[in-house]
Amino acid sequence: MGTMLISGTVVLVLLGFENHVWWLAAAAVLFLYLQYGRSGTASRSASSGGSSGSMPQTYQAYRKRRDEQARWERRYRRERPLESRRQTRDKS
Fold first, then answer.
1. CB 12: neighbour CB atoms within 10 A?
2. What is the 3-state secondary structure (H, E, C) of the chain?
3. Dist CA 80 CA 86 (whole Å)
4. Contact 57, 49 (CB under 8 A)
5. Less Cβ around it within 10 Å: N or C end of the chain?
6. Which is higher by pLDDT, 53 or 7?
7. Environment class of residue 92 by beta-carbon count within 10 Å: exposed (0-12), middle (13-18) or buried (19+)?
8. What is the pLDDT of residues 59-86, one digit of tens each?
9. pTM reported for the whole predicted model
10. Nearest CA to 83 among 73, 50, 3?
11. How far apart are CA 54 and CA 78, in angstroms?
């Protein structure tokens, strides 16, 4: 999708040297992609459980995600003890 968007925008910019309306079209395409294209991709990944900001559908999914997050935090503290101490000190 991104490759098609970039190539389409380049074509519109090149056509814009003859008719400046094509530059406006290229700007509109980029604006629409940034406004609506990215959020559509994020919502699709959230529905499949890929996003950390989405609400889990079941309690089991919530527990699984919570336990996974706790494992990552314990691993971070184990591998970077000085950094984790500094962060807890800065937090309080």
1. 19
2. CHHHHHHHHHHHHHHCCCCCHHHHHHHHHHHHHHHHHHHHHHHHHHHCCCCCCCCCCCHHHHHHHHHHHHHHHHHHHHHCHHHHHHHHHHHC
3. 10
4. no
5. C
6. 7
7. exposed
8. 999 999 999 999 999 999 889 888 878 8
9. 0.38
10. 73
11. 28
Q: What is the residue type of 62?
A: Y
Cβ–Cβ contacts within 10 Å for residue 8, how many?
Answer: 15
**Lookup: tokens for 11:** 């074509």
Amino acid, res. 15? L
Task: Name residue, tokens 């700007």.
Answer: 27
Residue with tokens 């950390």: 52
Over residues 32-46, the pLDDT tens digits come to 888 877 655 444 444
Q: Is the pLDDT of residue 29 over 80?
A: yes
